[in-house]
Amino acid sequence: xxxxxxxxxxxxxxxxxxxxxxxxxxxxxxxxxxxxxxxxxxxxxxxxxxxxxxxxxxxxxxxxxxxxxxxxxxxxxxxxxxxxxxxxxxxxxxxxxxxxxxxxxxxxxxxxxxxxxxxxxxxxxxxxxxxxxxxxxxxxxxxxxxxxxxxxxxxxxxxxxxxxxxxxxxxxxxxxxxxxxxxxxxxxxxxxxxxxxxxxxxxxxxxxxxxxxxxxxxxxxxxxxxxxxxxxxxxxxxxxxxxxxxxxxxxxxxxxxxxxxxxxxxxxxxxxxxxxxxxxxxxxxxxxxxxxxxxxxxxxxxxxxxxxxxxxxxxxxxxxxxxxxxxx
Amino acid sequence: xxxxxxxxxxxxxxxxxxxxxxxxxxxxxxxxxxxxxxxxxxxxxxxxxxxxxxxxxxxxxxxxxxxxxxxxxxxxxxxxxxxxxxxxxxxxxxxxxxxxxxxxxxxxxxxxxxxxxxxxxxxxxxxxxxxxxxxxxxxxxxxxxxxxxxxxxxxxxxxxxxxxxxxxxxxxxxxxxxxxxxxxxxxxxxxxxxxxxxxxxxxxxxxxxxxxxxxxxxxxxxxxxxxxxxxxxxxxxxxxxxxxxxxxxxxxxxxxxxxxxxxxxxxxxxxxxxxxxxxxxxxxxxxxxxxxxxxxxxxxxxxxxxxxxxxxxxxxxxxxxxxxxxxx
Lengths: 328, 328
Prior knowledge:
By secondary structure, chain A is an all-alpha fold.
């Protein structure tokens, strides 16, 4: 299903990026998985294109043609790429999709500029539609994206327990911004460009809910995912002390396992044995199960909104459901 | 004159920034000169506010109220702030307006995020007007800004002389993007929001011309400006080997001074005596005079557009002229 949409989006995406000065265009091509750092082009490239596919499916779901939403799809994919490039700088992550992060491959300055270029192209792409509703949701998503990333950073200096601990509710608010907003913008711009701006608000909410589910699944994979499938180290998020839902939910319980987990986390140890013990304690304290239930709850909220507003959109429903049940 | 506009813009700017999470809001306040890195607020702050004043004056010049263009003015000021924060990272500049650069004060990651936050707020501010013409010029400016910054970076690895030398024409194209585009967006959004979208295109061109003049004056100050007034080291641009108009224009001549200058630059020496010698040779080879003439030519082009389209806008004309005749 995604392949069909990719054939619509990719030529438009390549056209847009081709307008860049080659100095930054090469780095953008690397970012989007089209080329290696040495400039050689890559045929089978990464990037699942979920966000642009969501935009096109939303346009079709309201009776429009997928083509009407291509600029919106290109915009959300470019914003997504921008956010990955800058997040890797901000989070000091050296690897992305089994390759060097952009800043690692080209340096921090060029990576900042490449991210800015992708964002500028995104705004410009959508602006060319002249659709103020679509633009208002993309700009809302940009603000929410930055706010979400900020909350995530601010979590780092907060304690695991006590009055200043991060709650699951705060996490949810963070994930709505960091992951939900851009899915919300994809859905909202899709219906707006497809001819149904009155559905933009519920589809924004739908995408935000979907994003929270997506992020929680990501958290689960970050602890228990198969490294061969995810491309990320096993227990990576635990080793880095990231405040993810399974851990926060486990700590919120007041049983012996939760208290033992708190002590282990407070020790700050990151050796293999300790991290494995922490993962086991998260599970024992019910964190894994609580995270699964929370993801299911947000996915249901998203699907309920689809059922209410776009009951016949079976492909859209299938794509949305697949986002929160993926294994990588 | 600028004080009146500042009283219109600053409350709106502060309101907009207040919506940020405090973690990044504090860094945005530092960026905008409202607070020190320790959080203490600053009464007399920097930032001349030329771009927002230009937007408001343009709205008034077409018979609108300045208030109509406040969101446009806020947007261009925020984009300007964004670009300074990221440019200082990209150019590895440690100082800005007699203070630490944002990345120097808070670290690179937080500075990337602060810049992104300012840009997101800018887009969102203008998007709330629902004016597609204004938005189209802001997004065009963003793309041009990034392209200009890219050209400037790409100049660094080009030789001073020979077939790959940077020409004055290439420089002009770079400056149109790096400095002109945002002034163009200020003027274009100003007239669009003021009720005359049909004047947006000529005002965009006017602003771009003004920006080239502004940038050339900046180049002149970067070599011969008084460090006490500019806050920058004497001969700073020469020491860093920046490709500025006075130097490029001097090298374009084929007299003994130009050849001697080329040899001095090729030596790569940055001691005080060599840099002073280079400055003298630039002047002797006619680079200072040529740069002044080029700045005047671009300023005249801008003023001619104002005279043609907005002949009664005396305040706007005065502000525009002052931009290209400043001493700091």
